[in-house]
């Protein structure tokens, strides 16, 4: 039991890292990694939302869609659930924890359309994970996303001062750097498996 | 049937949630600001003195900036903005930057070889850059790098030259020059004094053959109200600039037209 | 034997102190002197004489303008031939007086001697200000300003700086050998003014003869002579304080914050001259050295002696130098003219020959970390230099560029020959400008 | 002396050829080129050992890598329109390191491709030496490892009979780490063989004494920091030791781990690469410990038998952060910042 | 602007992948071979055309404040249709490799971005053509990427051997290969634009990836 979850978590964070191995959530990965502080903020927001959405979508999946035999509706329902969830979280955060909202709030709208969120929910549904397992998997995936984001922000701190040839500047060098990072992460293959 | 109900319910729930957010926390953007944002040029050169075009648009919207401050806008756009803001448009003079020095390597004496970071401001930190005239252009290109429009050329014989057709008069180079050689002048003025040294004429002569030596010939030619003397340096009255013919009176070529400068383009 | 004291970081360049055994020479009176009116940090002095005026040695030529300023006195008797400007070592034109000597060297009426043990500190401060004494270590900060700390900062320790950690320079070394008593007196006067209990004298142990002489001169006056391990930049204020007392000057703070005051031995001797003999500061001991010179040595130059005259006194050159440096090789400024005069803070004139030239063949930083290891302030010069190259001055400020003391250790060790000190200076200037602008904006 | 000379024999300096530059006017006599050269010299014993154990083809692999690295660097700088600085020796060093990280059987085309990837993707796209965040040689090696997994993990047994220098020994053999995972418990190689490098593996990684010799040479010259290899090896020893003690069947003893695989090469020559590792000593220690942890984790639990390259690359990406976190507070900074006093 | 231009701009001038830099995730993830790229591209094109047209139809009815959720629902409907169609008619192997990237078309910035930037402001036919152009542009870019990756990895194109005896170079099929090829593609585009800007005597600054291009978050 414990080892099963350990494998799930390590697998989601390192081996099948959402960004570097499954290639999900590339837009925020490239867009919000210019500074470490924003990367940390985005990472935190994603962990928070993905854990919640993993739980909520699993709830919907197991309590409504599966019993009603409406599995084919998962895409529509999940995206609606996630969109609504993000909005509600935003409202609640703003009302009850203003400091946290100030820190993470600007990242929340970005998350609705982060394909990592929907992707993890669909993966859980397709993989037949239970509610707890889904939540764990989603939060671990989010941690993996945050880890990649922080590592990449770290490298970009150096890239900012490098003499990058003109045609390679911008997203191009970011992608090429991500390539090397992805290569490095492939070393974790088989970990925990 | 269940499909329809389910989708309706989910749609209702999410719609409700979003509605709440919009109702309580929605912000309405300033429409004036958005319109202005479309009109400003978007070059973000900073010539208006604000942080980029967006900052300028915001400042205009709340009335803390004038429409004429942007060097890039043409008159039609300025008038359009004035109409939007409901203010009178003021006549503007197009400005152009001029590097007030003629001391390239052919004319001015270099006292020592400078060996260090290739930048005027850095060179100033090392014995003043090693140029005989301590007011002269170092020719290492701080201004050219500061120019967002690529209007300043550093000639091979180490002097900065502004290309008036590219210059919009944003004034970035004025701040970048550690020797304060660059002035913003009206585009209509045909001649300029290409020397900035307030030293005595004899001392200037020692280091530079193209310096203004304070001979007053230009003052005699054009009259006091067009050119005056500040010590031994001729100063052009840009409110009433002399015409190009006065350049012929200058024995050293310090007073000359921008056209001459153009024709010697390397 | 006191334990060997030193500080963090630093380097050990070749010492090359060829002139350390050459006694100080009194040069003959020259024909002309160019006396700059700004020989110190702060506002330039205002000339009180005009063209054609007859002056005597020690007579006031320019009076201090404001608190952070210092008066200037005539180096010899003669006629003011011109009120003009001259080139300073920093490459800027400064106001100056051209003095044609009459060869008589007639002294002006000296100021009355003061019995410092009885005199109140105020009188002594006034005398030090009137004598135009500035820090002779190189920064040329008016001494009286330093001796007037704010009332809430009590100074308990006076540290005399006899370290002379710059290679090649020997002026302070010779001064300690030849004027030990004056240095002790000057130190006692300073301590008296400040009410400091402890006086420490730091000397690097490559000058054993100076340590010996100073120990004898100190006698039972309570001054402690500390022998320090040879390490550049031991003579930097904060590093010296740490080496002899173990106290750390806070980042961005002054020695007075921790109750210390550092004074150069030359300044101490000048204070003794001013107080006990009424003699203003118009001369200083300067080392003229370098391989191209015929006879390097130490001279007691009158202020206003041009570098050309100084080099002439040193027998001229055997070969053409490639660099002329005002000061020592680590922190001195390269100059390009021989018409620059010796001023109160000129500790040395150094000539480098062609083969001693280190051309900057600047390569990218390979992050070897040597600069980091050698930096006495614990900054990261390598990272800073790349940031500064990219004009990211705000980043540089965050990485503590303002703590740089410009000692040059980083650039000395850099295998990629990066002009690190120049980068730091630029960044410091930019950061200061930005701070001033922010302050002005805040006030508006 | 001056007094005896008449005025006209005294020669004053000619000021027309003076140079002005920023202080300091003294410099230590060292250069980037010398540092790179010294590292290459330090690698030579291990190269020689590789050639001795794996035959003359090892030299060919090294040569191809060095040559194609130099060629691609020249080509790239030309394309970018920048000054060619290949004379600083960094490209040659990258090539040598890459070659040492390849099996002797690596086909020539693979050596060339690996070198091109190392130089282009590892270094030149960032603007050349000094700006690359990742170790170029490792980028090349890992790319090859992912691209051609079979060719990169086919090992030949070291030669035993050096009279037969004719061709490459075709007896394939697993590396010590690969074997130890298969036959847990019983060690397939004696420590003695491991130490001398009489095992299968990459060209430059097997002979421990040669690597130690080079490493100590560099530490003595103050080119690399002793903290890096020491903390790296110690961390690996500690983690593998604890794991071995807890689960003998799954993990080889620490000494076995230290002596096998690319650990020695990595600890002395890769984790000490100046450009891609932290600037300060404190940072270097953090870096080394991080490498040690990741290496042990990948070796013990991962599906790759070897984790040195991956762990160094991952730590490379953290270098700027380590730099920032270990940036020494400047001299005199109080332990706790005093509260801002408003004037 | 003529209808042809509406169609054509998506293919080159405003190519969603290479110029607008939208929809990076599917671009990188499913371009491991030309065939996968084609499948994904066509699926996305279908959703784009359908959702663009429907959104254009309802654009005047939907209140401004809830338009994004409405668009998302419309898009999600089309995505579900595509999912079902693919499950029914597409080869099983293609379906397996595309996997979760088909439902993820919902959050593909291209679809929502076009809905917000174009369809909500233009007529039905123009919106349909815009969707078609964008979809083809996306498909072409994806196929170019997929073809290069497939060729470099296995020496094949659409699973046909082009160069016999090609040594497999599997890196290109893995995620790093996707990053590398797209990185160099974008560098090539930048180079073209720099050349063009230089010819016109202008300065060119390469675009940054930021979310301002996809308009969704700027509501």
What this model shows, in words?
The complex is a heteropentamer of chains A (193), B (266), C (444), D (343) and E (219). Chain A has nine helices and no strands. Chain A has 193 residues and is mostly helical. In chain A, helix 3 packs parallel to helix 7 and helix 4 (74-96) crosses helix 7 (115-127). Chain A is globular, with a radius of gyration of 17 Å. By secondary structure, chain C is α/β, with parallel strands linked by helices. In chain C, the strands form four sheets. In chain C, strands 1-14-13-17-15-16 form a six-stranded mixed beta sheet. In chain C, strands 2-8-7-4 form a four-stranded antiparallel beta sheet, with no helix packed on it. The termini of chain C are far apart. The model of chain C has no long low-confidence stretch (mean pLDDT 90). Chain D has 343 residues and is an all-alpha fold. Chain D contains 14 helices and one strand; from the N terminus they run E-H-H-H-H-H-H-H-H-H-H-H-H-H-H. Mean pLDDT of chain D is 85; it is low at 163-169 and 335-343. At the B-E interface, helix 1 of B face loops of E. Strand 2 of chain B pairs parallel with strand 1 (19-21) of chain D.
Write the layout of secondary structure elements.
The complex is a heteropentamer of chains A (193), B (266), C (444), D (343) and E (219).
Chain A: H1 2-15, H2 26-31, H3 36-68, H4 74-96, H5 98-104, H6 108-112, H7 115-127, H8 131-159, H9 171-185
Chain C: E1 24-25, E2 32-36, E3 46-47, E4 54-55, E5 60-63, E6 72-73, E7 78-87, E8 93-101, H1 121-130, H2 143-146, E9 157-161, H3 171-178, H4 180-194, E10 198-204, H5 208-218, E11 224-228, H6 237-245, E12 260-264, H7 265-277, E13 283-289, E14 297-302, H8 307-313, E15 323-326, E16 333-335, E17 348-352, H9 370-374, H10 381-389, H11 393-398, H12 409-413, H13 420-443
Parallel strand pairs in C: 1-14, 9-10, 9-12, 10-11, 13-17
Antiparallel strand pairs in C: 2-8, 3-5, 4-7, 5-6, 7-8, 13-14, 15-16, 15-17
Chain E: H1 3-9, H2 24-29, H3 34-58, H4 67-89, H5 92-98, H6 109-119, H7 124-154, E1 156-157, E2 160-161, H8 175-199
Antiparallel strand pairs in E: 1-2
Major sheet description of chain B: 2 strands, antiparallel
Q: How large is the share of residues in beta strands of chain B?
A: 5-15%
- Which residue ranges of chain A are poorly predicted, with pLDDT under 50 across at least 5 consecutive positions? none
What do the pLDDT scores of chain B average to? Answer: 80
Count of runs of 4 or more consecutive helical residues of chain B: 10
Short account of what is shown:
The complex is a heteropentamer of chains A (193), B (266), C (444), D (343) and E (219). Chain B is α+β, with helices and mostly antiparallel strands.
For the structure shown, list the relevant keywords.
heteropentamer; A: 193 residues; B: 266 residues; alpha+beta; Alpha-Beta Plaits; 2 domains; two-stranded antiparallel sheet
């Amino acid at each position: 039991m414990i080892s099963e979850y350990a494998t799930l978590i390590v697998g989601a964070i390192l081996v099948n890292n959402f960004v570097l191995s499954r290639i999900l959530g590339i837009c925020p990965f490239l867009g919000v990694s210019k500074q470490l502080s924003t990367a940390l903020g985005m990472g935190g927001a994603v962990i928070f939302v993905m854990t919640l959405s993993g739980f909520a979508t699993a709830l919907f999946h197991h309590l409504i869609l599966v019993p009603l035999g409406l599995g084919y509706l998962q895409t529509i329902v999940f995206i609606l659930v996630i969109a609504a969830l993000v909005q509600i979280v935003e409202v609640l955060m703003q009302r009850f924890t203003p400091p946290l909202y100030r820190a993470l709030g600007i990242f929340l709208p970005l998350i609705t359309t982060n394909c990592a969120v929907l992707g993890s929910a669909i993966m859980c549904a397709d993989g037949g994970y239970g509610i707890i397992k889904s939540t764990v998997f989603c939060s671990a995936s989010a941690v993996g996303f945050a880890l990649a984001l922080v590592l990449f922000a770290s490298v970009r701190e150096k890239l900012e001062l490098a003499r990058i040839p003109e045609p390679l500047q911008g997203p191009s060098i970011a992608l090429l750097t991500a390539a090397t990072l992805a290569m490095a992460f492939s070393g974790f293959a088989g970990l925990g498996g | 049937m269940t499909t329809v109900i389910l989708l309706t319910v989910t749609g209702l729930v999410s719609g409700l949630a979003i509605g709440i957010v919009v109702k309580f926390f929605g912000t309405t953007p300033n429409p004036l600001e958005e319109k202005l944002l479309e009109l400003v040029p978007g070059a973000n050169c900073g010539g208006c003195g604000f942080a980029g075009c967006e900052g300028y648009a915001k400042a205009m919207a709340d009335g803390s900036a004038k429409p004429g401050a942007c060097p890039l806008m043409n008159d039609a756009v300025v008038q359009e903005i004035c109409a939007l803001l409901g203010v009178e448009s003021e006549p503007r003079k197009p400005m152009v930057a001029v590097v007030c020095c003629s001391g390239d390597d052919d004319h001015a004496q270099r006292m020592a070889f400078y060996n260090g970071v290739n930048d005027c401001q850095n060179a100033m930190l090392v014995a003043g850059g090693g140029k005989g005239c301590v007011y002269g252009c170092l020719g290492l290109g701080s201004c050219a790098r500061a120019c967002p429009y690529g209007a300043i050329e550093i000639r091979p014989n180490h002097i900065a030259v502004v290309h008036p057709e590219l210059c919009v008069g944003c004034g970035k180079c004025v701040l970048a020059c550690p020797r304060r050689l660059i002035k913003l002048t009206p585009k209509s003025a045909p001649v300029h004094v290409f020397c900035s040294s307030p030293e005595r004429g004899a001392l200037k002569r020692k280091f530079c053959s193209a310096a203004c030596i304070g001979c007053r010939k230009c003052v005699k030619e054009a009259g006091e109200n067009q050119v005056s003397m500040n010590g031994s340096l001729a100063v052009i009255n840009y409110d009433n600039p002399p015409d190009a013919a006065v350049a012929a009176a200058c024995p050293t070529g310090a007073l000359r037209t921008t056209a001459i400068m153009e024709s010697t383009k390397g | 034997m006191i334990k060997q004291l030193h500080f963090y970081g630093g380097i050990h360049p070749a010492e090359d102190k060829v002139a350390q055994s050459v006694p100080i020479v009194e040069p003959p009176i020259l024909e002309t002197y160019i006396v700059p009116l700004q020989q110190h940090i702060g506002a330039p002095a205002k000339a009180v004489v005009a063209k054609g005026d007859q002056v005597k040695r020690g007579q006031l030529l320019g009076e201090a303008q404001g608190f952070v300023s210092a008066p200037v006195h005539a180096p010899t008797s003669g006629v003011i031939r011109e009120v003009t400007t001259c080139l300073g070592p920093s490459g800027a034109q400064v106001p100056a007086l051209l003095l044609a000597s009459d060869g008589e060297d007639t002294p002006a009426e000296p100021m009355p001697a003061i019995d410092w043990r009885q005199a109140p500190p105020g009188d002594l401060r006034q005398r030090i200000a009137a004598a135009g004494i500035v820090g002779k270590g190189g920064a040329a900060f008016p001494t009286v300003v330093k001796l007037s700390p704010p009332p809430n900062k009590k100074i308990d320790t006076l540290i005399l700086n006899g370290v002379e950690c710059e290679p090649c320079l020997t002026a302070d070394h010779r001064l300690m050998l030849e004027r030990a008593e004056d240095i002790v007196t000057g130190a006692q006067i300073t301590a008296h003014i400040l009410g400091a209990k402890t006086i420490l004298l730091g000397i690097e142990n490559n000058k054993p003869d100076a340590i010996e002489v100073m120990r004898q001169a100190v006698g039972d006056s309570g001054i402690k002579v500390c022998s320090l391990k040879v390490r550049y930049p031991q003579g930097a204020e904060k590093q010296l304080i740490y080496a002899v007392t173990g106290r750390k000057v806070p980042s961005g703070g002054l020695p007075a914050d921790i109750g210390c005051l550092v004074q150069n031995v030359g300044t101490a001797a000048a204070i003794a001259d001013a107080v006990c003999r009424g003699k203003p500061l118009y001369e200083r001991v300067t080392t003229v050295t370098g391989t191209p010179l015929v006879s390097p040595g130490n001279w007691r130059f009158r202020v206003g002696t041009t570098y050309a005259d100084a080099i002439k006194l040193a027998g001229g050159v055997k070969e053409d130098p490639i660099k002329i440096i005002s000061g020592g090789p680590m922190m001195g400024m390269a100059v390009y003219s021989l018409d620059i005069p010796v001023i109160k803070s000129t500790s040395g004139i150094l000539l480098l020959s062609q083969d001693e030239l280190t051309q900057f063949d600047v390569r990218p930083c390979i992050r070897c970390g040597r600069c980091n290891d050698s930096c006495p302030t614990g900054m990261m010069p390598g990272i800073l230099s790349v940031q500064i190259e990219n004009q990211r001055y705000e980043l540089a400020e965050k990485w503590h560029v303002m703590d740089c003391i410009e000692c040059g250790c980083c650039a000395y060790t850099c295998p990629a020959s990066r002009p690190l000190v120049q980068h730091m200076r630029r960044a410091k200037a930019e950061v200061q400008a930005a701070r001033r602008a922010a302050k002005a904006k805040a006030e508006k | 002396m001056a007094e005896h000379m008449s005025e006209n024999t005294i020669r004053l300096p000619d000021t027309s050829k003076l140079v002005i530059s920023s202080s300091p006017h003294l410099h230590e006599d060292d250069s980037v080129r010398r540092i790179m050269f010294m590292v290459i010299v330090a690698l030579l014993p291990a190269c020689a050992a590789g050639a001795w154990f794996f035959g003359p083809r090892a030299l060919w692999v090294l040569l191809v890598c060095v040559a194609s690295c130099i060629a691609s660097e020249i080509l790239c700088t030309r394309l970018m329109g920048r000054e060619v600085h290949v004379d600083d020796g960094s490209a040659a060093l990258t090539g040598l390191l890459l070659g040492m990280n390849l099996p002797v059987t690596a086909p020539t085309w693979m050596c060339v491709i690996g070198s091109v990837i190392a130089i282009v993707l590892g270094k030149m796209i960032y603007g050349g030496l000094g700006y690359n965040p990742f170790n170029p040689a490792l980028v090349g090696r890992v790319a090859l490892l992912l691209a051609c997994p079979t060719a990169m993990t086919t090992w030949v047994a070291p030669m035993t009979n050096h009279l037969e220098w004719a061709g490459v020994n075709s007896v394939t053999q697993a590396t010590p780490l690969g074997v130890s995972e298969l036959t847990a418990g019983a060690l397939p190689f004696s420590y003695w063989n491991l130490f001398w490098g009489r095992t299968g593996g990459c060209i430059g990684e097997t002979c421990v004494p040669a690597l130690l010799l080079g490493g100590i040479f560099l530490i003595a010259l103050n080119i690399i920091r002793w903290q890096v290899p020491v903390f790296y090896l110690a961390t690996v020893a500690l983690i593998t030791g604890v794991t071995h003690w807890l689960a003998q069947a799954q993990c080889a003893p620490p000494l076995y781990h230290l002596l096998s695989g690319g650990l020695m090469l990595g600890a002395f020559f890769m984790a000490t690469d100046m450009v891609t590792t932290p600037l300060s000593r404190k940072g270097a220690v953090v870096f080394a410990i991080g490498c040690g942890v990741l290496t042990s984790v990948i070796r013990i639990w991962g599906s790759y038998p070897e984790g040195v390259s991956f762990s160094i690359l991952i730590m490379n990406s953290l270098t700027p952060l380590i730099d920032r976190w270990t940036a020494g507070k400047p001299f005199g900074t109080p332990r706790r910042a005093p509260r801002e006093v408003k004037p | 602007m003529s209808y042809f231009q509406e169609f054509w701009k998506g293919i080159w001038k405003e190519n969603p992948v290479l110029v607008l830099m939208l929809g990076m995730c599917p671009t990188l993830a499913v371009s491991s071979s030309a065939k996968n790229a084609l499948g994904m591209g066509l699926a996305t094109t279908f959703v784009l055309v359908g959702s663009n047209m429907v959104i254009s139809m309802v654009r005047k009815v939907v209140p401004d404040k809830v338009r994004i959720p409405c668009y998302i629902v419309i898009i999600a409907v089309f995505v579900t249709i595509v999912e079902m169609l693919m499950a029914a008619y597409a080869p099983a192997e293609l379906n397996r490799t595309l996997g979760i990237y088909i439902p993820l078309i919902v959050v593909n910035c291209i679809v929502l971005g076009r809905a917000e930037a174009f369809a909500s402001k233009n007529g039905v036919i123009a919106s349909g053509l815009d969707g078609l152009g964008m979809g083809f542009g996306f498909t072409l870019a994806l196929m170019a990427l997929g073809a290069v990756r497939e060729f470099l990895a296995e020496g094949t194109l659409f699973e046909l051997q082009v160069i016999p005896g090609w040594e497999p170079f599997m890196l290109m099929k893995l995620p790093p290969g996707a990053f590398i090829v797209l990185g160099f593609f974008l560098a090539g585009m930048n180079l073209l634009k720099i050349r063009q800007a230089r010819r016109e005597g202008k300065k060119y600054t390469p675009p940054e990836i930021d979310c301002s291009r996809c308009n969704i978050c700027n509501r």
